[in-house]
């Protein structure tokens, strides 16, 4: 099955490159994550070409791998941080001597007093609020900077909506604008992670740059920034179509305002591909096979329950003469002792112990949410030397995989709270 998928959308060079990557791994390796600075820079180029008037502030929570952060700093990208640790991770990467340090927006609307004091010591000047209580907390802590106000917007068509936890309503916005002693210098929103409906962006942009700004100015605040949040797909085709559909709304924002965004998935998802070895197999109870791979739902595959991802995989052929194998109803388990550690089940190509499986586009909410439960370490991280397929080609592979394997079931057990 995997070989047929490869040959239908790909070329022999790709298979050769994947074999070269696998051959470079240590014989003791069981799972390896390969980071691609080339893909990161390609996504940044796509962003600048598609929405050049929107400055990206990378959402560190999506993937804080040092090589990812270093590549972004080198390309003069700013950062959206939501914890002191994330701020320290960005600062620890340093910056080229001929560049200014990156700007850091502390975008968490709910902070502890300790966080507020530490941010002041780190010279972070802008944070986010979504309640009058948070403004009062900043005042008590003698916050010397400013804040953006995060608005509650429609996010029902996103994989992971946030409005049940974050965002001020119009009524709450008026209250904050009226009583806050903290200067409100911008308006932000987030339509939810993995947004699949451009209309959500349209409505949110109009509300933020129109009603939001008008209310703040009525109470003598001087907002200058529109922060359109994140949720952008990393699929180049989908991203370009989405941005094309909201171009009018972005163009209607007055030119004397600064537009920023907080892309995480858009940059992070193509930044890493995962290679995982099959380490065990035995017959299934009702036919087929039960496989165990050297990663788990508690590791990089935490993206399945937490982010509702459906990773695609391809067996890396041992040689150009490798033939396709039979297909059976089987289950792929993770390596932990938890019987619920199920990655996927359904009709799939037969596997053998020692096979390497290639999972493209595994950079978003994978390493960031991975644990070392059961004593199993996180995958080794290596830098791509230009052998991974391009983002466009990787997306073509993933789409073809799901077209052919539409009946596969994943362990998407966590339902978002709406």
Which structural traits does this protein have?
418 residues; alpha/beta; Lyase, Ornithine Decarboxylase, Chain A, domain 1; TIM Barrel; 2 domains; nine-stranded mixed sheet; eight-stranded parallel sheet; 19 strands; elongated; disordered N terminus; disordered C terminus
Task: Walk me through what this model shows.
This protein is of the alpha/beta class and 418 residues long. The protein folds into two domains: 2-36 and 270-410, Lyase, Ornithine Decarboxylase, Chain A, domain 1 (Beta Barrel); 37-268, TIM Barrel (Alpha-Beta Barrel), CATH 3.20.20. 33% of the residues lie in helices and 22% in strands. It has 14 helices and 19 strands. Strands 1, 12, 13, 14, 15, 16, 17, 18 and 19 form a nine-stranded mixed sheet that branches. The protein has an eight-stranded parallel sheet with strand order 4-3-2-11-10-8-6-5. Helix 1 crosses helix 14 (391-404) and helix 8 (170-179) packs parallel to helix 9 (198-218). The relative contact order is 0.17. The model is unreliable at 1-9 and 414-418 (pLDDT under 50). Its EC number is 4.1.1.17. InterPro entries: Ala_racemase/Decarboxylase_C, De-COase2_C, De-COase2_N, De-COase2_pyr-phos_BS, Orn/DAP/Arg_de-COase, Orn_de-COase, PLP-binding_barrel. Pathway: Amine and polyamine biosynthesis; putrescine biosynthesis via L-ornithine pathway; putrescine from L-ornithine: step 1/1. Belongs to the Orn/Lys/Arg decarboxylase class-II family. Its cofactor is pyridoxal 5'-phosphate.
């Amino acid at each position: 099955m995997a070989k047929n998928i490869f040959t239908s959308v790909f070329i022999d060079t790709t298979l050769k490159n994947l074999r070269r990557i696998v051959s470079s791994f240590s014989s003791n390796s069981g799972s390896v994550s390969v980071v691609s600075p080339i893909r990161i820079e390609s996504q940044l180029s796509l962003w600048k070409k598609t929405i050049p008037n929107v400055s990206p502030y990378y959402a560190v929570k999506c993937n804080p791998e040092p090589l990812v952060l270093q590549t972004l700093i080198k390309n003069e990208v700013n950062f959206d941080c939501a914890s002191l640790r994330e701020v320290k991770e960005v600062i620890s990467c340093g910056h080229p001597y001929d560049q200014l340090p990156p700007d850091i927006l502390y975008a968490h609307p709910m902070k502890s007093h300790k966080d507020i004091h530490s941010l002041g010591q780190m010279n972070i000047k802008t944070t986010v609020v979504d309640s009058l209580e948070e403004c009062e907390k900043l005042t008590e802590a003698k916050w010397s900077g400013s804040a953006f106000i995060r608005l509650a917007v429609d996010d029902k068509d996103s994989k992971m909506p946030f409005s049940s936890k974050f965002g001020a309503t119009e009524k709450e916005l008026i209250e904050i604008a009226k009583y806050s002693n903290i200067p409100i210098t911008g308006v932000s929103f987030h339509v939810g992670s993995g947004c699949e409906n451009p209309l959500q962006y349209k409505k949110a942009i109009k509300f933020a740059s129109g009603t939001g700004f008008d209310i703040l100015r009525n109470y003598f605040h001087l907002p200058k920034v529109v922060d359109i949040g994140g949720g952008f797909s990393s699929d180049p085709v989908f991203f370009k179509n989405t941005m094309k559909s909201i171009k009018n709304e972005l163009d209607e924002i007055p030119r004397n305002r600064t537009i920023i965004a907080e892309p995480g998935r858009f940059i992070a998802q193509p930044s890493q591909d995962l290679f995982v070895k099959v380490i065990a197999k035995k017959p299934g109870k009702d036919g087929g096979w039960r496989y165990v791979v050297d990663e788990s739902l508690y590791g990089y595959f935490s993206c399945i329950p937490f982010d509702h991802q459906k990773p695609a995989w391809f067996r890396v052929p041992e040689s150009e003469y490798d033939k396709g194998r039979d297909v059976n109803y089987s289950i792929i388990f993770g390596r932990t002792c938890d019987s619920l550690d199920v990655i996927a089940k359904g009709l799939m190509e037969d596997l053998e112990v020692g096979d390497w499986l290639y999972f493209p586009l595994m950079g978003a909410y994978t390493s960031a949410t991975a644990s070392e439960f059961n004593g199993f370490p996180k995958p080794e991280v290596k830098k791509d030397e230009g052998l991974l397929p391009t983002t466009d080609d990787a997306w073509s592979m993933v789409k073809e995989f799901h077209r052919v394997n539409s009946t596969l079931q994943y362990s998407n057990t966590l339902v978002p709270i709406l």
